[in-house]
From TrEMBL:
It comes from Paramormyrops kingsleyae. Coiled coil: none annotated. GO terms for molecular function: trans-L-3-hydroxyproline dehydratase activity. This is trans-L-3-hydroxyproline dehydratase. It catalyses: trans-3-hydroxy-L-proline = 1-pyrroline-2-carboxylate + H2O. It comes from the Eukaryota. InterPro entries: Pro_racemase_fam (IPR008794). Homodimer. It is an enzyme of class 4 (lyase). The keyword RNA-binding does not apply. The lineage of its organism: Eukaryota, Metazoa, Chordata, Craniata, Vertebrata. Pfam families: Pro_racemase (PF05544). Keywords: Lyase. Belongs to the proline racemase family.
Length: 344
């Protein structure tokens, strides 16, 4: 059967879909209008201000769903970058996304964004809004495999602060930065278990924490005000002290969106926090498990560094992404739901 273009408004947006540890990634590779801006953070602002209707078309139903995640490939102003990327979710545009970097590393090698890949690993420099992230993609017999990446400097922002969470009382928690800021607290504090409890119960608690922290704690990042916002809350199993056993967590980010993966930027933030508290050493590899799907990432601090006045670490996170499909999306004239909608 010939596949013909359906009736549409003139715009055809083509994507490649992947997932990393169950978390979807819709990579937009053609059909998006030019994203203007003299640097990546300016492009992020432009996408937010001028093109947000297209995020909704691609992330929301009927083409996506409440928990869809996307990546827009853009040009980077950094000479060492192989590609630039903007991340999209159900609320807007993130500054870092580890599961996406793991998928994009493979995509960049498989689709020729990097010339002459080498075995056993090909380096792909991905310019994310938080900075340059270096991905190392397994490559042998012409095939790509697992990916590890080195984060931008990650740091504990504040530890053991008390936040008043309506409905739950005073909660002691940490805030850590792994390319995005997260509040971190053990689910046990709320009588929940990140692997066993119902997802909706975990989401309710995490959202209450996120909203309390947003209203009570002012965040700050030494590089840019664009990075200084709380992305979400990570509920953990409380097993922060180093061990060879996996530690599980569930990340609730953006508008109550649930990460199916262990969360690359979350693993980065957790290791920065654990290192800050003396619970993990440099080069000690820890396994992180998603409370949602049981998928695994590994992580380790590979280098001590500085981020402004914050002692920081570079974290290496490793995982595996898979392809799920390709698609070209249209909006048909006369479709009252063509711009996308969400069920909450
Ligand atoms: O892996 C990560 O870092 C991301 N996954 C969805 C939420 C985070 O951006």
């Amino acid at each position: 059967m010939d596949v013909r273009l359906p009736p549409h408004n003139g715009r055809l947006v083509s994507v490649i879909d992947m997932h990393t540890g169950g978390e979807p990634l819709r990579i937009v590779w053609s059909g998006y209008p030019e994203i203007k801006g003299e640097n990546l953070l300016a492009k992020r602002r432009y996408a937010k201000e001028e093109l947000d209707h297209l995020r909704k078309v691609l992330m929301f139903e009927p083409r996506g769903h409440f928990d869809m995640y996307g990546a827009l490939i853009v040009e980077s102003e950094m000479s060492e970058a192989d590609l630039g990327v903007l991340f999209m979710h159900n609320e807007g545009y993130s500054t870092m996304c580890g599961h996406a970097v793991i998928a994009l590393g493979r995509f960049a090698v498989d689709y020729g964004l990097v010339k002459a890949p080498v075995s056993p690993e090909t380096q792909v420099n991905i310019h994310c809004p938080c900075g340059l992230v270096k991905a190392f993609v397994q490559f042998s017999d012409g095939k790509t495999g697992a990916v590890r990446f080195h984060s931008t400097p990650a740091f504990a922002f504040v530890t053991d602060i008390t936040v008043s969470v309506p409905g739950y009382g005073d909660v002691i928690l940490d805030i850590s930065y792994g390319g995005a800021f997260y509040a971190l607290v053990s689910a046990q504090r709320f009588g929940l278990d990140v692997c066993e409890s119902r997802t909706r119960d975990l989401v309710e608690v995490a959202c209450a924490v996120t909203s309390a922290v947003k209203s009570q704690v002012k965040l700050y990042h030494p590089s840019s005000d664009d990075l200084a916002f709380l992305y979400g809350t990570i509920l953990t199993d409380g097993k922060d002290q180093f061990s060879n056993e996996p530690t599980a967590n569930i990340c609730v980010f953006a508008d109550a969106q649930v990460d199916r993966s262990p969360t690359g930027s979350g693993v980065t933030a957790r290791i920065a926090l654990q290192h800050h508290k003396g619970m993990i050493g440099i080069q000690q590899t820890r396994t992180f498990q998603s409370g949602a799907t049981s998928s695994l990432f590994t992580g380790k601090a590979v280098q001590e560094t500085q981020c402004g006045e914050f002692p920081a670490v570079v974290v290496e996170v490793a995982g595996q992404a898979h392809y799920t499909g390709i698609a070209s999306f249209v909006q048909e004239p006369g479709d009252s739901l063509a711009n996308g909608f969400l069920l909450k």
